Amino acid sequence: MNPVQLAFRVLRVDGRTRTSTVLTAVGVAVATGLVLLLVSLPFATKARAERSIWQEVDYRSSGSAMLIVQGTDFTGGQEITRLDVSSTVDPHTIALPAGVPSFPGAGQVLVSPALFERMHELPASQLADRFQGTVVGTLDDRALRYPDQLVALVGHSPEQQPAGSYQVAGFQPAANAEVDPLLELLAGVGVVVLIVPSLVLVASSSRLTAARRERRLAALRLAGATPGQVTGIVAAETGVAAVVGALIGLAVSPLLHSLATLVPWDGGTWLPSDFGLPAGVTVFLVVAMPVLVLAAAVLGLRRVVGNPIGAASSHTPKPLHAWRLLALPVAGAFFFFVVSSNDSSAAMVLLGLLLVVASAVLVGPWITFAVGRIFVQRWRRPAGLLAGRRLLDDPRGAYRASAGVVLAVFIGSMALTLMPSFESMAGGGGTFRDPVLSVSTSSERAREVTAQTNARLAGYGQRARAAEVGEVVLSSVNGSRLQALVVPCAQANELLRVALTCDSAPAVYGLGDLSGYRVSGNYDEPGVPLVAGTQVRSLRPLDSDVSVDAIVDPAALPAGVVPGQAKVAVSTTGSDPETVRTALAASGESVYSRDVYLAGQQTELDDLRRVTVIGLVAAAVLAGCSAAIATAGSVLDRRRTFGALMAAGTPVRLLSRALRAEAALPALAATVGAGVVGMLVGLGLFSMIQEGREGVSAVLTPWLLAPVVLGLGVAVLAASVCTPALNRVRAEPLADE
């Protein structure tokens, strides 16, 4: 009988082996499905970028076929991507991106379906008038980053093209698209920190009947079976579950991809086609998962192959050595070396993270052994002594029940270190007050934009009026330079995030003494001294986010100094903000406001929170399942021992307490350690982002204790399956063993 036939014979006659096989297949399916999903994320971002790369200006392009300028607008808190274009050649010769029906002529506009609907829902003064043209068509999904993206392609004549346009050969081709680096990094981290718990689940499932299988294989070895035959039998038993699980994972991966399309990222959801993997990558991953499981199963045969008598008689495993503790500091040193290096790559960071996670496999059993020794020496209650003896005799098996929980605690602590630190970086953008909208333009065009905006505001019946704010440079004799805004004092108090004391005399306002500073329109121009007698007054910022260095009254500007750049700003106080935005955006420039700037930060933080919650829930579920299966397997592995204890009169309640203590004691020590290590790894990852940013520091909150407490609770809760398992042992005759 060949190994495959023997494996199926065992599956037919042994119910516990069937249970173990089914659970192993489920574990492999989960691992395969997660791997296929996580590996597809970079490909999904690449597909997104290929569709939407035409919405970005290709500054490296050399040609003169068209003029283009890209801007950003907002409506109701949603971003609008706006492209103003004009053709300098026959527009039919310009290659169009997929999903763009035609090149818009002067006065024509192409919009996305979602923007088309929004334009018809709102009054023209709040949205449609911004584009100054007639909608002649819509873009389809092939031209959009995500299904509900708001995009406008506005056509002009070359003479009416907005300022700041670039002359290019055409729209940017899809070949220039790149992967989203942040989601690529998160996908790599996900592969490391979620696949390991999945493999722990597989290992726990395969160990469900480990003792019985070891005795069976040892008997075959003693009966004359060769090591190769024994290995073939195990490979066949495990291979059935691994291959079936991998195929199930492949079959359910489209469902996982469909669910992933509902998770927003970078402002919107996904198209189902985004998550397609190349066939070669899919085949490799589906084949790799069973191979890893088979390799782990074969490596676990060393005891049976090398010492069948010891396996058959269940000799005590070799004691653990303290050198295992070196694995964690060595892995940690490598990880922190990588994150502190200036030229470290994402692959090296992920390798360091993987080594830290893998070091738990070596350190965890020794901690379990140490905890068992303490309880055997100092505890005198029966449940504690039974638990301590188990931890001391088989620390590897005892740790296996809490391995998934330890990894989940590590992930949670790392995430709860990074998220508050990321949130502390939010803010900034503090030039104008919150109700103020502004556009940046050249000083020559600023007056025209101001006049046009005020005319539109008057036509819409709005009280708000636009003001021109110039930008000059103040330079001192020691070489220091400040960016200064040119605006009357009264308007500065209305528009800027500062408080000034105004007087009839023109003045210069700053955070320090500005006496002796010279004024120039641009950084590369020689400065002109301030007019003699110009007053220098203090500038009081309203909050810490203010980014205004100095303010110059227009009357205090020396003759001949012309601001190099300018802003046109409007306060929406007392007016309809969307109508004011329309009046300002009709100039073709990108409208900036602080609330939208902060909303963009909030979108990024929401993306990270969403991904973190999904990852933590997945890790917790996997950890709980692996702990429950490992506890049940521990009971079945020691069926003889527990059956004898119960036959001698030991209550099931006492044995249940001992088993819960087995799970809780190593979990308590290991989860505390995992929490500390997760926090340190989180600080290491944050240091890579923090580098080069002044005033940014990591934030540690009391929520860091939550993963440890929840992890311990999950371990104890999962260990509650021991009571049903013990009742099953009591119900079955010992002779069955």
UniProtKB/TrEMBL annotation:
GO terms for cellular component: plasma membrane. It comes from the Bacteria. The chain crosses the membrane at residues 21-44, 185-209, 230-255, 275-301, 322-340, 346-376, 397-419, 613-636, 663-689, 701-722. Residues 191-300, 615-730 form the ABC3 transporter permease C-terminal domain. It is a multi-pass membrane protein. One of its GO terms (molecular function) is transmembrane transporter activity. Its main location: membrane. The keyword Membrane applies. Keywords: Cell membrane, Membrane, Transmembrane, Transmembrane helix. Belongs to the ABC-4 integral membrane protein family. This is FtsX-like permease family protein. The lineage of its organism: Bacteria, Bacillati, Actinomycetota, Actinomycetes, Pseudonocardiales.
